[in-house]
Amino acid sequence: MRAAVYQSAGVVEVVEVPDASISDPKDALVRVVRSCICGSDLWAYRGIIDRAAGSRLGHEFIGVVEAVGSEVTTVKPGDFVVAPFQWSDNTCPACLDGIQTRCEHGGTFGAPGTDGGQGEAVRVPEADGTLVVVPGGLESTDPHLLPGLLALSDVAATGLHGAVLAGVTEGSTVAVVGDGAVGLLAVLGAVKILKAERVILMSRHDDRAALGRSYGATDVVAERGEEGIARVRDLTDGLGVRHVVEAVGTPESWEMSLGMARVGGTVGAVGVPHTSPQLGIFTPFRQHLTLRFGIAPVRHYLPDLVPRVMDGSYDPGAVFDLTLPLAEAADGYLAMSERRSIKTALAG
Amino acid sequence: MRAAVYQSAGVVEVVEVPDASISDPKDALVRVVRSCICGSDLWAYRGIIDRAAGSRLGHEFIGVVEAVGSEVTTVKPGDFVVAPFQWSDNTCPACLDGIQTRCEHGGTFGAPGTDGGQGEAVRVPEADGTLVVVPGGLESTDPHLLPGLLALSDVAATGLHGAVLAGVTEGSTVAVVGDGAVGLLAVLGAVKILKAERVILMSRHDDRAALGRSYGATDVVAERGEEGIARVRDLTDGLGVRHVVEAVGTPESWEMSLGMARVGGTVGAVGVPHTSPQLGIFTPFRQHLTLRFGIAPVRHYLPDLVPRVMDGSYDPGAVFDLTLPLAEAADGYLAMSERRSIKTALAG
Fold first, then answer.
1. What are A61-116's pLDDT values in tens digits?
2. Which cofactor does it need (chains A, B) (predicted)?
3. B2-154+297-347 maps to which CATH number?
4. Which residues make up the CATH 3.40.50.720 domain(s) of chain A?
5. What is the ipTM of this complex?
């Protein structure tokens, strides 16, 4: 089969790789319908972190089950499924706490020795604890819903998780730091799922700001740093916001997030740090902040989110502004790296 | 009047200072009955931080109101009162959120230009929003209850706040890092007020461990660092604890606190950092932790805690293992600095 592999910084190629196959009785073999490129895939592409030459890429995909191992009971061949970006048994202590991204039998697609999502098929370990079936199957699913379902595999659930960690509830005022797909989908999750009343999106890209507004952002702040903090305070009677979603993960975005939080406020952090940011604890102390961290347990959210996408009440798919055939994955990486695309989907 | 002043590292003297007096219509003048020495007072005493020569000391006291300004309505001369270590108006947005330690008209006793608690009398700004009256007055209060009431002015409420921040509720398992007065009173607060079931106290001093056990600690761990973390994990099926109270504030104690927290756990941080610790955010991310910070809003807790001390159901006073006359304050500093005393009270 064919799959995207990382060759070196800036070089992604779609090449022939060994066919995905079942190797454990808990596995499922899934034929990929759509996959996509993640902001985190760009870290190696841009040379920020190391990645082994020849390693497989991609951890977000939806597809159709082709075969299952002998112990799999909840999915069967022909099922249309959403895969979270990590697999999980859904039965260990962390999973039972709703933190499937710390499953003791879990792992991430695309890690060494596993199939990546950006390929024709994927071996899915712990299939029962990982895959969530889309009712009705692929044939009866409106193709316009595919981007929304694909977004559930990571960014939509991650954005929502950020808003959940930030403590957003009905009527909340929330600020979202980061206008990538995760930040934009934090806006959508805060508004559509958690019923926030006011959402301030930090964005200085017109296209992203416009999408953010369409997702329900009530205010957009283009300024950064101290100026951005001052603008948010101006918008909130000088007090700052009770809920901040940190969806970037850099020292600069952290400084903004901490600076705009109201005394007693909460920062929900889903911007995975790819460097090693250190956080001074004086500001959190002085401001009585709550900081909540975590890589989104997508599997925890899927049973709720899949029906919302299917009934049209929640549409995270608009973050995909470019869709390419798998064979053209390299163009997708370049488009995202050059910020010509918010998020690129790969079809077929 | 006489009051303790800081002269230089290691040198505290009780000297003649200007009489405390009312200078604002919202003030009360309080004659000090008991005050005490705080762990944070030792930072300058030990030369860790700078403090102005001649500056007043102490922020914890109980006393009797001697006079009030024209706008004061809730306390009157003769009332026996507990003072939180910071004054507050109790009406600003932060106060209304229960965070009186960020009151917009607040301040700390003993700061430049204010009276310290370690003296004969104190001018209390914002008296209505600050002082809490002990029902019945000083004459009818059992002298055995005075240490407990004095503890409420800081350490008892601070320990409880740590447990509250850590999310402790009925049946919780909690670890307390720090066996100073605050850590010990976090044990008591977790057990007596919040109904924790299991409390692991990190302590390697026999006297403190014994007091911790008397306060309800079910386990004492003397090891530190990686060994301490391993011991706590051994005690919790390898999973770590859901609730950690960080009552020290050093890089070492933070590392232990983060290391012993269960995936998805919460660290309540009341150990005020006197250096500038930086926190790596990888561990909180990886472990899906919630970190909650803040200098305890003692005033928020006092209306609940004063009656508990008065009816004998809650006795935080045992942390005072040494009581000296005010004139011997210097001996108290030395005893605490040399760890011969957990906490020293100054009488009269």
1. 999 999 999 999 999 999 999 999 999 999 999 999 999 999 999 999 999 999 99
2. Zn(2+)
3. 3.90.180.10
4. 158-293
5. 0.95
Q: Which of B99, B284, B293 sits opposite A293 (nearest CB)?
A: B284
Residues from chain B contacting residue A162 (CB–CB below 8 Å): none
CB atoms B278 and A281 under 8 Å = yes
CA–CA gap between residue B98 and residue A307 (Å, rounded): 40
Q: What CATH superfamily classification does B159-293 receive?
A: NAD(P)-binding Rossmann-like Domain (3.40.50.720)
pLDDT digits (tens, 9 = 90+) for A337-348: 999 999 999 996
Contacts A–B by Cβ distance under 8 A? 111
CA distance B265 to chain A (A): 10
> CB-based burial of residue B116 (10 Å sphere; 0-12 exposed, 13-18 middle, 19+ buried)?
buried
Amino acid identity for residue A181 in this structure:
A
Which one is the CATH code of A158-293: 3.40.1360.10, 3.40.50.720, 3.40.50.300, 3.40.50.2300?
3.40.50.720
pLDDT one-digit tens code per residue, B281-332: 889 999 999 999 999 999 999 999 999 999 999 999 999 999 999 999 999 9
Phi-psi region of A2 (alpha: psi -120 to 50; beta: other; left: phi over 0): beta
Q: Nearest CA of chain A to the CA of B346: how many Å?
A: 29
Closest chain B residue to A278 measured between Cα atoms? B280
For chain B, give every residue range classified as CATH 3.40.50.720.
159-293
